Amino acid sequence: MAKKLSLDPLAGYHAIELLQRCAAEAQSMNYEDTVFNNLKDKFPLIIFSCVQLASKMSLHSEIIDNNTAVRFLHSVGHSVTKQTLLESELMVLKGLDFRLNVSNPLTYVEILLEVLGHNEPSTPVEQLYDLCHHILRFVSLEKTAIYDSLLVTSTKCLHPSVKQREKFVTVTEDRMLLAVGVVAVASYIHHVNKWEQVSIVGGLNLITGISRRSIIDFAHVTLMHIVTAALTDIQVCFPFTLVGAEFEG
């Protein structure tokens, strides 16, 4: 949706973060069935409201005004009024308690690549940045499956307990871990040799303080899901083919 509206990718990921927070807030409340069903019916509009709000927070995108919003929604089969748009936006704002400044994983990725390039000028920053966009999009789409696999890997238990799952919530909310994992996967896919790969993982460890083991585990799990998606003919929008040995640190 953000791409269709010619928004900066940062705005798109900002919208995802807003939507996830909004959904988490809705799940935490004990809505009656009628209220919950009403929210489900409004979900496409809620998604758009998150995108519209993200555009207003972006420094690199034009704000989506209500005229543009009405035209876009009409083009995809949703006829709404400006008043309905305003009500939806207000509902999302209230659901977020008017807090729109959220952690953006793409921002973390950009910062990490910039620091890596500064520390080691030979780092292929531009190529890694392009790959990171594709990988981050994949992780966003497959978030539940990837983090479930990461939970199993970290606990070494096929059926983690409720307590283990509760503790793991902080991991799913760690945007820096997500970013270092994405950059590590990009470094592997770029076919840099093993020593460069180790250097990048080590650099990420020094920059963030996140252990090499955690970075490698996240990268390994993500790579396995990418390979599985490719082998099962799930549409994966990557401009590359995975070859080579297993990811190592």
UniProtKB/TrEMBL annotation:
Protein name listed in UniProt: Cyclin N-terminal domain containing 1
Every Cyclin N-terminal domain range: 2-101
Domain of life, per lineage: Eukaryota
InterPro entries assigned to the protein according to its UniProt record, in alphabetical order: Cyclin-like_sf, Cyclin_N
One Gene Ontology biological process: reciprocal meiotic recombination
GO CC terms in record: site of double-strand break
